[in-house]
Amino acid sequence: MNIRPASTSDAPAIAAIAESVRFNRATADSAKGYLVYVGTPAEYASRIEANRTSFIAEKDGNVGAFLLTSPQAGNTATHAESSEVLERIFGGGALLVDQIAVSPQTRGQGSADLLFMHMRSALAPQRMTASIMHWPLRNERSIGFFSGKMGFKCIGEYDEGDGFLWGIYEWKSDATHGDPRYPVGRFLYTGVASETDLSQRIERLRILPFNLRAAAARLDEDALDTPIRPNAWTPRQIIHHLADGNSVMADRVRLILTEEQPPVKTFDENLWAELADSKTAPIEESLRILDGVHARLARLLASRPYEDAKREMFHPEQGLVKLDRLLSYLDWHGRHHTAQILALAP
Fold first, then answer.
1. Model pLDDT for residues 215-259, shown as the tens digit of each residue
2. Tell me, what's the pLDDT at 77?
3. φ/ψ (deg, to 5) at 324
4. CB-based burial label for 327 (10 Å; 0-12, 13-18, 19+)
5. Residue 32 pLDDT > 90, yes or no?
6. 114-139 tens-digit pLDDT
7. Cross-strand pairs, 167
8. pTM of the prediction?
9. Which H/E stretch holds residue 208?
């Protein structure tokens, strides 16, 4: 397998490979991996011309795989316009690993690994990032490649208005990438979601209890009482924490929807987690609470007009907080803790 820099003449072959792995909601398989934003030959030629930091793998003169990178916003498959997202992706001189794909005929020959290692050797980046789909179908094949093989860590998530949720993955040459406390990255809020993204967020809130229950079912009683890290909470405390906190958040949603900028009271989640019931009660008690809270919350939110997302509450520490931001945090918070529990599963 020969690895060389991509040229504009490779664009038709690159477009054909990308098309062969295009995301399709009806047939997509997370175990096989996919691309979402597939370009035309002209668009790929423009990216190659603009960046000059992309590579192909070829055998017997045939392009079998490609890797597109970008050192700057624009001319990439990353469409997010939020300055916070762009800073996480391109800040610190980061190189975005924009797209990597292998043709059906070339799979299983290690071409993706060769492309990636050649790129890293040729460009010697100090920081690299990649955007990988988390919803509606988590791209496990790509996550396994970047996070498993190449050492990337998730540092945040963002949406783009069309119902897709993306994880931002980071690699640094000094191995300071990511934070083990945040398996789906730190919370990142980039402004009021589109109507499509808000609808998808409500669906994620609806199914959170099902995903949490499935994660907890993989742990035995001893594991439920084992801290997820030294001096951290146990899975049992996390599940009770979610029931406590999400019940409070559901009350805040109702206040926001029925009052004008209602003031809300804070609570100390760490002290709540140390109470006897949080440390000893069966997790089923809180899982049932979450079943009811999230079913009713999703039903309520689905009944409201999109404009309600901009309604606000007054938080004594954060000031005015939009309903959209509260829901964004609630969505992230549930998946964050579920991922922590899953990390303990055998």
1. 999 999 999 999 999 999 999 999 999 999 999 999 999 999 999
2. 67
3. -60, -40
4. buried
5. no
6. 999 999 999 999 999 999 999 999 99
7. 132, 157
8. 0.93
9. helix 195-216
Q: CA-CA distance, 235 to 277, in Å (whole number)?
A: 13
Phi, psi of 312 (to 5 degrees): -130, 160
- For residue 344, give the nearest of 151, 210, 178, 215 by alpha carbon: 215
Strand, coil or helix: 130: strand
Q: Which domains does the chain have, with CATH numbers?
A: 2-172 (3.40.630.30), 195-342 (1.20.120.450)
Quick one: tokens of 154? 């998730």
- 235-258 vs 195-216: helix crossing angle, rounded to 10: 150
The end-to-end CA distance of the chain, in Å, is 37
- Sequence letter at residue 286: S
Is 293 in a helix, a strand, or coil? helix
Which residue is associated with the tokens 């011309």?
49
For residue 89, CA distances in Å to 157, 232, 325 come to 11, 30, 21
Contact present, 270 and 278 (Cβ < 8 Å): no
Q: Is the pLDDT of residue 74 over 80?
A: no
Tokens at residue 24, please? Answer: 């399709």
Q: In whole angstroms, how far apart are CA 58 and each of 3, 14, 64, 66, 106? A: 7, 11, 5, 9, 9
Other Cβ atoms within 10 Å of 248 Cβ, number: 16
